[in-house]
Amino acid sequence: MPKMKTKSGAKKRFSLTGTGKIKRKHAFKSHILTKKSTKAKRALTKTGLVSDGDMPKVKFMLTIGK
User: Fold this and answer.
1) DSSP string of 23-64?
2) Which segments within the chain are labelled E, that is strand?
3) How far apart are CA 32 and CA 12, in angstroms?
């Protein structure tokens, strides 16, 4: 049986924390920023965590566990 391959897109977008959670970046920060408030843009800069519902899918893409 061949080895499981990590999805290249997921590899670039997600990273693991020390406690096993998965970090992600916020969307909507790449363009059309003139209509967004400074406060909203600053909040989108910070990293977030993947939600519990999406965790199995992201772990599968990163081939972490099952």
Assistant:
1) EE--SS-SS--TTS-HHHHHHHHS-EE--TTTHHHHHHHTT-
2) 15-16, 22-24, 48-49
3) 23
| DSSP code at position 5 | P
| Rounded CA separation 14/32 (Å) | 24
pLDDT average, residue stretch 10-17:
95
Query: pTM score > 0.90 for this model?
Result: no
User: What pLDDT was estimated at residue 66?
Assistant: 59
Total count of residues recorded for the chain: 66
- Which residues are CB-neighbours of 35 under 8 A, at least 6 positions away? none
Each residue's pLDDT tens digit, 24-54: 999 999 999 999 999 999 999 999 999 999 9
